[in-house]
Write a structure and sequence with these properties.
The protein is 18% helix and 20% strand. With 325 residues, it is of the alpha+beta class. Belongs to the MsrP family.
Length: 325
Amino acid sequence: MLIKSSRRLDGSDIAASEVTPRRVFERRRHVLRAAGAGAAGLVFGPRAFAANDAAEGAKLAATPNPAFQVADKPTAFKDITSYNNFYEFGTDKGDPVQNAHTLQTRPWTVSVEGEVHQPKIYSIDDLLKLAPLEERTYRMRCVEGWSMVIPWVGYSLAEIIKRAQPTANAKYVEFVTLADPRQMPGLASKILDWPYREGLRIDEAMHPLTLLTVGLYGQVLPKQDGAPVRIVVPWKYGFKSAKSIVKIRFVEKAPATSWNTYASDEYGFYSNVNPNVDHPRWSQATERRIGEDGFFSPKRPTLMFNGYGDQVASLYQGMDLKKFY
Ligand SMILES: Nc1nc2c(c(=O)[nH]1)N[C@H]1C(S)=C(S)[C@@H](COP(=O)(O)O)O[C@H]1N2
Ligand SMILES: [Mo]
């Protein structure tokens, strides 16, 4: 997606991907079968999972939170789980669904560390129990110009931050993804400086919209979507939403992030969805909603802060968003 030298970034790929190639179609059929099997299952507690994995498709009980819904129709499960960016499993959209099965999601720990009074290493079971699981449907928008509407399962990241008691020096939060070459074939190519890293200002991380995410469509996160736990920040471009995280670190200075390190003139630290600030090589004014991508479907206008301006614009009061892109 974001590779400079690749044809994927110059816009031609967007047109090409409007035609579904046969192998993508076949993968989708496979995913559909998996989804059907999950839907027939029971509601499992954490102890029902297999030793090294959260059972693929296991249900997660979550209460819809009416404060976090959108009117747009949710994107189909098969699209959410077969059209992915997860470079640890390859750079093509269809790679993660095919390759992510090697990811071992149990045992799994997340270390909360750095500038906090209460550092803690959480097991994934601890995280699942930390706060009530909510279903929240968010608009998601990739910097490449496509978008989806995803019913996530999780709770506000603020729940963890409150418990950690950040020190007065904690100005930013860094998120670090697992980087294990035995589980992640994409690490063999040095496109990004692994591990994948992202970051937020602490007030962004504390914002109730920022979701510690453990599922989608009422089931545990599929591996290609960042199992067993990821961050979701719906008013920012998708790459800010780090998958399969193992570390949440509180720091004083803005942390280096993978995409900013890769090309700082193209991917800034903030990366708020903003139709008025173009990427240096393409416009960000419109987007293609996955599932609506026929040749004649009109593109949608991209909304400021991805439509979450009422809730987040105040975080950026007085900032020049062309400078802090
Ligand atoms: N660890 C990791 N997290 C990642 C990525 C990645 O390559 N590695 N890609 C990002 C990008 S560019 C997007 S658009 C979203 C896609 O999430 P989805 O596949 O669940 O829709 O994940 C983000 N998180
Ligand atoms: Mo993205």
